[in-house]
Structure formats: structure tokens, C-alpha cells
Amino acid sequence: MVDIIYDASSRCWVLQMETSTYCIELGEDDSSLQHIYWGPRVALVEALEMAHAPKPPVVAFESPTGMSREEYVPWGGMRFNEPSLKVEYADGTRAIEWIFDEYAIERSEVGQTLWLRFRDREYPLVVTLYYRIYDGHDVIERWARLENSGGGGPVTIEQALSADWQLPRRESYRLIYLYGQHMGETQIAEVMLGPGKVVLESRRGATSHQFNPWVALDPDERATEEDGEVWSMALAWSGSWKIVVETTSYGAVQCVGGLNNFDFRYRLDEGAHLDLPVFAGLYSNNGFGGISRKWHAYERERVLPEGPDAVRPVLFNAWEGTMFAVNEQNQMELAEKAAGLGIEIFVVDDGWFGERNSEYAGLGDWTVNPEKFPRGLNPLIARVNALGMRFGLWVEPEMVNPDSDLYRAHPDWVYHFRHRSRTEGRHQLVLNLARSDVRDWMLATLDLLLSEHNIEFIKWDLNRYVSEPGWPDEVGHNPERVWLDHVRNLYWVIDELRRRHPGVAFESCAGGGGRVDLGILSRVEQVWTSDNTDAFDRLRIQEGFGYVYAPRVMMCWVTDCPNFLTRRILSLRYRFHVAMAGALGIGGDLAVWTPQELEEARDLIAVYKRVRPTIQNGLLYRLRLPRAGGAAASQYVARDGSETVVFVWGHSQQFGETQVPLPLCGLEKDMHYADSLNGAIYSGAYLAQKGLPVNLVGDFDSRMVHLVRIAPR
Ligand code: DGJ
Q: How does residue 250 score in pLDDT terms, banded at 50, 70 and 90?
């Protein structure tokens, strides 16, 4: 059980979690909150003892406060590190001096929350720091609430980060993070921290393909996949964000993150408050695999919306086959074939609405195109339902093509500055969703679509980032708030749609994986991982994705060969084996698949359905890393240990070499495991020590092995 304890004599709060402990202390004069400990679980007395450890001496040109290890750093006084919070008061004072006010520990059915309130000594700023922990987990959710308590005019917020995580003192730290691009998301970067700051950020108005708001740090490069200490942080925000990992001049390492302060100002009026996004953190001493499994469990149990599906359904999407040329006839034909394969959700992608025959027109006009669907969408939906599938639809509600009725009617609805260009990306502009009229239009339009059709799945896309974020009518009235309010209104629209249409599942897509983060994951069932559907490239994308995000949210399609991007030709089985590592979809043009391919696909989908609870909801072990080259392998173990699924994806065979057996993880040594496909039986000890025999042959060969636990023979 997790627990939060306050010890009055040492003025410490101790957060006891599943396998870790976190300890903080009220600083001298009640004017700061100090970090004491974050690491493996220790007894309460041990945590409290650490608060008595001598503080390092203050060096010249620094102050005791500036050198202390603050949990949240209000800019003011002699502080030079990255501040958590920087404001300007109405009279021009720009320094915060706060004092502790009160705290509470609140218990719920699933965990506990500690909040601590600080107030500025003079000005009407109240800051409440939150720490929430959950039974069975090691994640600490941290965020802050900023309030203007009134009587002193508005408070202008210049930087408002969610939390400052202090790492224990070590010789050095390795920082692991995810970077990428369109068609190449979630690549893994590793750097050794030196003096100075590493700033990871998005200034794009959305999470971004370029960096994902997640980091992991291990001391002295000691962690491996399954061993060693790792601290990891992830931000729940889908707009511009910033994570700063700073090694101070006196050797402390801290990681602070939240809303990006670039081009940002937010006026907090009297009586108003602002809740900052969660910046979650966790500790594991089971290496990178350990943190991944902890993030996955947290997402499954505490982040993802509660939906009707215990597992994600198998989906079909014809985008790569039909592109914009969708019509009732070709979708009907595809639906027949998809149903024959065992598909569970049939999705119509881009092209079904307005004058949307290419990228150039139609975005914003969310009415069914009468040439393509003369009878509307309902006959197709009825057929899809009659075939036993749910119907899903693609939308990109935040965007508008200049060639659209919406833009012709509301040219002022897009972000723009006076006398400046409106730069188009993919021939589209971004609607100013911070505007309440745009927000209300969006909700009404999508609500109508969902009310008039039996749509049970929405793929919500975004195919360019925010540029020229002007709002001419609001000049002088804090138009910079668009960076925040666009995302808040996006969340509001999705939340409201979910409330009105509880049977609809959502997928977050932004030209692939441009909007994947814990914030969007709390309101969608899954995400589109990447527009790159080449199975070999996907291994690297999926590897990085899995460091933080759970396999059940990772939508993976099997598409046609040669791949449209890489021209690579891979066997259908290999493509399936890569896509089966997450939530499976088929994105190929079934109209051109041969009867043999359709039969093989049907069989593999049936196998996937049998094993998907273990893949989607089990424990992931990365046995051989794709980025290491050679054959890659992953293993999934059911949480009750009853079965395990192994994928091995070969690269190329040279000199007639054979693979060494693959030692497995997470099995019981005294039990036996039967291969459900060929009947072979192994002991757990054998699989852990000697390893699973895998004989891949040639190039891009692959295997899936499904082992079921049985009593020892
Ligand atoms: C980008 C998405 O990632 C694709 O899957 C597809 O939906 C296109 N947009 C449609 O325009």
C-alpha cells in the first residue's frame, strides 16, 4: 500500500510507494520546500534521518537558497537556476517571496494526494503544489495550481513549469530521450550530462514529432535493460512544452518541465486560477525495462480512459490504398474483405467530406461529399455493422484549407498576425481554437456528425503545426494565451464529445506520432504511431515508443509492399509480426491482396486475437534491441504469468550462421511452458538460462512463439 506521512518534528513529508520512497522537507523560515530523498523504498525513520544530513557548504557567488534543492523554484531572491515560476505583479514587482500556508493529505480509493500551499508575503499569488501517488505504482504525479487571490490586480505569468525533480548526487548522469521527425518518430538519444542545460522542447503548439516529453536518467551509465537505477519523467501536455535538465555549477542535477515559456504570457486575473499539467516521475532499480513496465502499468490503470474494450480491437484503414479517392463502392468492397479477415473496426480515412479530392481543398467542411457518397455515409455504416464491424471515421478538426466554405466564411478564424503571411503547411491553416466561437463550432460540428451516424471510432488528425500564432482582435488582451487555450479547448472538446457519446473510442494522430503524450492519452484509447509503415523501420520507432508508452495504445498497420516510403519488400508474415507487437491494424489495399495473402492474414489475425491480452496488457521485456543491429526480439508476459509471447525479427543472415538461443525473462523457473504452435515443452529454468531456440533463415525472417505455463511434467 502507498502512504503519505507527515512527521511534525522534522517537518518532513514522506511518500511511500510500491517500491520507492520520496521525501521532502519544509525549509527554514517556511520559505521553501526542500528535496530530501527519492530512491528505493526505505523505512520511514531512514527517510527522516536523511533530512538531518549536513547541507553542502555555500560557495562564493551563490546563496543558501539558490544552492538548496527546491521542489519548486519561485523566481526571486538570489536564485540563478531554471525557475519553476516567474511572474510580474501589477505594480511591476517581478520577484516572488512566498511563505508556507497549509497542507493536506487526501486519501481516495486508489491512492493519496498531498498538497502544500504557499502564499506570496505581499502579493495576491497563491501556489499549491500537488503530489499524487497510486496504490501498486511508483509514479508520482506532480503539478501546481496558481491562483490570484485578488486585491492586487492581475498577475502576469511569464514561466510556469509543473514541477522540479531533484536527482540524487552522483558522479555523472546519462540522459535518454526521444527525438525524431515525420516518418521517423521516437528515436532514442543518449547523452552524458555535462555542466549546463539540456533543453528539450516543442514550440510548435503540439507535442511534436521532433521531441517527445519524456526523459530517463541513469547514474554513471550503469543501468541496463533489466538492472540498475533509473529515474524517469513524462509530461501530460499536448501543446508547446519544455523539459530542462540542468547540471548546476555546484554539481546538482535537476529536471524541470511543463508549459513552454517561449512567446508565452498568461494574465491571471483577480479570482482566477491556472492548473498546470502533470509532470509525472518514477524510479526503478530494474533498468530501462523496469521503468517501461511501470509507465505502461500506470497508463493502463491510471491514465487511459475507461472504455468498454479490455483489449484494442483489430482495425482496418484504407488510407494507403485509396488515399483521397474514397467512395461508397470501394469502401463497401473493402468492408466485405475486411470482415472476412476478422477485422473489428472499419475506418474511412481522409477524403469523405467537402471538396476533399486532394490536400488542396475541403478541410473545415465536415459534410459528406455527395459525389463520393450519394446516399450519405449511413448505408456504408449499416453494411459495416451488418458485417459485424464497428465504423470509424477520420477528422482533422483544428485545420482549414483556404479553399473551403469555412475559410471563405471565417477568414479571421485562423491564427495570423496583421500585415504578415499566413504560411500554409500541407495547404492548410490552423484554426484559432482558443476562440470560444471556434471551440463551439467544433463541438457542434462533431457532435452532429456523431449524432447522425453510428460512428464508434474517431481518428483525430493534425497535419501541420501552429505558426504565426496571432489573434489581432485580442491585441492588448493577452493574445499569447493561445498557446495554452488551444490545448485546453482541444481537451475540452474531446472530453465533451466523450461525455455525450460514451461509446466512441478515439485515436490521436498528428501526421503519425506528432501528438503522443500522457495528456492526450488520458482522453484517447490509442495513437497512430507513425506514417512510416515500413515494418523494418517500424522496429526502431516502436522500440523508442515502448520506453514510455504501452503496447496497447501503439497502433500498428500491416501495409502493402513495396512500402510506399522505403520501397522495401518484406514478407507478409514479417509485416504482421512487427505490427502484432502493439494494437494491430491492417492498412493495405485488400483489393489487390491475393487469395493466399488474404488467407495468411486471416490466420495471423486469429492468432493475434488469441495472444493480444498478453501483448496489450502484459509486461514487456526488450530482449534484443533493434538499434543494436542484428535480430531484435521482444517478449510479453501475462500479468498472471500464465503465458508469454515472444517475437524475433531477423535482419540478415551471413555466412550461414545460426542464431544463439534467446534467454527469456519473467518466467517461473520451476514451471513448464508449452509452445502452443508446435507443442514443444520447456522448463522455465531452461528458457531463462539456455534460452528459446530460434532459427531464423535468410533476410527479414521472423518468428512468433506463444508459450503457455503448464504444471511440471
Ligand atoms: C496523416 C495520417 O497520419 C495518415 O494516417 C492519414 O490519416 C493522412 N493524414 C490523411 O490525410
A: confident
Residue 657 has a pLDDT of 85
Phi and psi for 151 in degrees, rounded to 5?
Answer: 95, -5
Q: Of the ranges 60-69, 195-204, 441-450, which one carries the lowest mean pLDDT score?
A: 60-69
Asked if residue 455 lies in contact with residue 392, where contact means CB atoms within 8 angstroms, the answer is: yes
| φ, ψ (nearest 5 deg) of residue 570 | -130, 150
Cell readout for 591 is 483489393
Spatial distance between the Cα atoms of 624 and 252, rounded to a whole number of angstroms: 34
Q: Please give the distance, rounded to the nearest whole angstrom, from the Cα atom of residue 396 to the centre of ligand 1.
A: 9
Catalytic one of 350, 365, 403, 531:
531
Closest CA to 161 of 180, 146, 177, 139: 146
Choose one of 464, 509, 533, 564 to mutate for the ligand 1 pocket test, by most ligand atoms within 8 angstroms of C-beta: 509
Residue range 581-601: mean pLDDT, rounded: 97
Q: How many CB atoms lie within 10 A of CB 374?
A: 11
Q: Is 517 a catalytic residue?
A: no
From the list 87, 83, 85, 96, the residue with the least C-alpha distance to 154 is: 87
Strand-strand pairing, 505-508 and 526-528: parallel
Average pLDDT for the chain: 97
> Does the pLDDT of residue 55 top 90, yes or no?
no
pTM of the model: 0.98
pLDDT band (50, 70, 90) for residue 692: very high
Residue pLDDT, tens place only, 613-672: 999 999 999 999 999 999 999 999 999 999 999 999 999 998 888 888 999 999 999 999
Q: Active site residue: 164, 218, 403, 461, which one?
A: 461
Indicate if 699 belongs to the active site. no
E-strand ranges in 551-700 read: 554-558, 583-586, 619-624, 632-637, 643-649, 672-675, 681-683
Per-residue HEC secondary structure of 291-325 comes to HHHHHHHHHHHHHCCCCCCCCCCCEEECHHHHCCC
Please compute the mean of the pLDDT values over residues 416-438 and round it to a whole number. Answer: 98
Could you tell me the distance, in angstroms and rounded to a whole number, from the CA of residue 510 to the centre of ligand 1? 8
Distance CA 137, CA 297 (A): 8
- The yes-or-no verdict on residue 54 having pLDDT over 90 is no
C-alpha separations of 89 from 31, 106, 219, 481, 619 in Å: 19, 32, 40, 17, 50
Concatenated DSSP letters for 162-186? EEEEEEPP-S-EEEEEEEEETTEEE
Integer-rounded Cα Rg, in Å, for the chain is 26
